[in-house]
Amino acid sequence: MNRRERADMSSDRIRVAVILSSVRKGRFGPTIANWFVGTADGRDDIEVDLVDLADFPLPTALTDEPSPEVAELLAAFSARLSAADGFVVVTPEYNHSFPAALKAAADWTQYEWHAKPVGFVGYGGLAGGLRAVQQLRHIFNELHAVPVRDAISFHGPWAQFDAEGNLTDPTNAEAAAKVLWDKLSWWALATKEAKTRRPYDN
């Protein structure tokens, strides 16, 4: 492999922030997020950064003059988002919607999401998190992101994973994960290349 081929391979690698949005006590989100991150193992086109919103407790009350503590949290969170070429949001469904922590994270940020693809992994009861995902598509459109059509949905996930966090029957979920990664990678490369030709934010 020559130097140019190595450079081309490097430029095709994308960084994806997988955002774990549940922060409640006893949450099941880490099991699903860790499983999803694991489905990227073996792919040489994707680098994953797992971003846990529990590590960034941003307040729901917005202000132009945050306290030093909030400003520090926001700067660290913003840096993680800015470094990503795309995102996957892992979200439960609470009362037919998504967690307040995720809305606060979106409201505190803006340009970090621009012209980048966003995929979704939803989980919950009968709807499998799909109502939360549908609402999030509207929000990320407003943030100038590019929601990916294909998503993953877990109906009653508590019975689908064993004590070690492995799916008892991974066939369908792993196939859906591959489709999501493939589509997210395509859009991430497309938007990344487009922004090198013409900046999105002028």
UniProtKB/TrEMBL annotation:
Gene Ontology CC annotations of this record: cytosol
Ranges of residues in domain NADPH-dependent FMN reductase-like: 15-154
Source taxon at top rank: Bacteria
Cross-referenced Pfam families: FMN_red
Cross-referenced SUPFAM superfamilies: Flavoproteins
GO MF annotations in UniProt: FMN binding; oxidoreductase activity
Name of the protein this chain belongs to: NADPH-dependent FMN reductase
